[in-house]
Design goal:
This protein has one helix and nine strands; from the N terminus they run H-E-E-E-E-E-E-E-E-E. The protein has 181 residues and is an alpha+beta fold. The N and C termini lie far apart (90 Å).
């Protein structure tokens, strides 16, 4: 009992229909994968948060005994579409190789596409100013913040942000003459 020509032609066209359906599904999956990849690269790609030093001042400065209070104002911007959680941060104040002060930055979160303003203040008990230093002395600040980005509550990306600045200060009155970060 062989198949008639009509039955054989029906099976042959059915195979072509199945093959065409599989090919269409494959093309659809390729386009879907390309769209997801493009969406990730254009929209969701993690970017490093932006840390800027807005101002530095020495509100109380005594030239007689070289003591002062140091304050640094910074802005930390999260340009991502996910939350940035920072948990390990510190600000160090240096003069040459000597560490004059150290402050821990409290842990926190910055919402998507938002900016958080931080201020760190500490007292410096004594700073040796030699006569060779003249009228200007230089301080160095090192602000380091570590954390991670949460993207779509599924992906996590580790981030380290740094701002290292040199600050020129008048030895006469403690006014800030310049900042270079």
């Amino acid at each position: 009992m062989g198949k008639s020509d009509e039955e054989e032609q029906h099976c042959h066209s059915h195979r072509h229909t199945n093959l065409a359906s599989c090919f269409a599904a494959f093309i659809f999956l390729l386009l879907l994968a390309a769209a997801i990849t493009l969406l990730y690269l254009l929209v969701l790609k993690p970017r490093t948060p932006i840390l800027t030093v807005d101002a530095v001042n020495l509100p109380s400065f005594s030239a007689a005994n070289s003591t002062f209070t140091f304050t640094e104002y910074v802005a930390l911007r999260n340009p991502n579409h996910g939350v940035f959680s920072h948990y390990d941060g510190s600000l160090r104040l240096l003069s040459g190789e000597n560490q004059l002060g150290f402050v821990l930055v409290p842990a926190g979160e910055i919402a998507a596409e938002r900016t958080k303003f931080l201020a760190a203040t500490f007292a410096v008990k004594s700073l040796y100013l030699s006569e060779s230093a003249g009228r200007v002395f230089e301080l160095e600040t090192r602000l380091d913040i570590s954390g991670h980005l949460h993207i779509l509550n599924y992906f996590v990306h580790h981030v380290d942000v740094r701002a290292h600045c040199r600050v020129a200060v008048s030895a006469a009155d403690g006014s800030v003459l310049g900042i270079h970060c």
